[in-house]
Amino acid sequence: MRPSCISIVCLVLFAFCSVDGSDLSQSPDKCCFSFSNTRIPVKQVESYHTTHLLCSGNGVIFITKAQREICTNPTEKWVQRLMKLVDNQNMKQMTEAGSGDSA
Predict the structure, then answer these.
(1) Domain count of the chain?
(2) Considering the domain boundaries, does residue 9 fall inside one?
(3) For residue 73, what are the domain limits?
C-alpha cells in the first residue's frame, strides 16, 4: 500500500471514531430505573431536576442537603407537591438574598 492510501484509511477510521464518540457525549448523565416511595421532607431537599429526554422513562431526581440523589416518579402527587414546595423555598431564599443586598 502506498503511504497516501494508508493516510486516507487512517483519516476515515479517525472520522468514524469521532462520530461514535460524539454520540456518547449526547447521552444522558443520569436516568431513573426505579423509584423511591419514601416521602422526603422538604427541609432535607436542596434541589431537584428531571431526567433527560433520552432516558427510557421520566423521573424526578431530588438532591438532598446531604448530596444524596433520590429518583422519584413524577406522576405521584407527593412528588409534584414536593417540587412546588422546593420551588417556593428557593424563590423565598432568592427574594431574601435580594432584599438583604440593598439594605
Answers:
(1) 1
(2) no
(3) 29-97
Q: Is residue 5, in this structure, part of any structural domain at all?
A: no
Task: Give the amino acid at 95.
Answer: T
Domain annotation covers residue 54: yes
Q: What is the pLDDT of residues 12-47, one digit of tens each?
A: 444 444 433 434 445 568 899 999 999 999 999 999
Dihedral-angle region of residue 73 (phi above 0 means left; psi in -120 to 50 means alpha; beta otherwise): beta
CB 63 within 8 A of CB 86: no
Residue 14 counted as domain residue: no
pTM here? 0.67
C-alpha radius of gyration, the chain, whole number: 23
Distances (CA, A) of 63 to 9, 28, 32, 89, 96: 48, 17, 13, 14, 22
